[in-house]
Amino acid sequence: MSDSPAFLTAHPEVAAWRHTFLSLKPGVPPCPGLAGAKWQAVHAAAVAFLDHYAEEAAGYGWTTLELFGVHPTLGVLRSDYCGALVLSGETASGIEPDRILFQRTHYRRNVPGQPTDGVALWAFKGGRWL
């Protein structure tokens, strides 16, 4: 995947997702609940998603929080706040208007009662937790 100026997209949010997610390093855990091998798997799976499905996701209207959301102080320790790409580290195998498919499961958006006051993974500022 490239974050070069030559990268073109019809959706400005895709460029923003790529730029900000790629600022996260696979060896530096971004929030509570994502460390070591789990964070490395989530990072790799998110990069693969950005390469293969981000354009389609943006076209379907998926939001930053639906994909990369976490709880503002507890990170992924509150899974009800988590976006599709920060939960398991599984690589996506497809996308539909209202769900992202993984090998063993799927993530459905627009679930009633799902919190809407999370933050994007790269915006996590939950304080010192390491």
Automatic annotation (TrEMBL):
<protein>
    <submittedName>
        <fullName>Uncharacterized protein</fullName>
    </submittedName>
</protein>
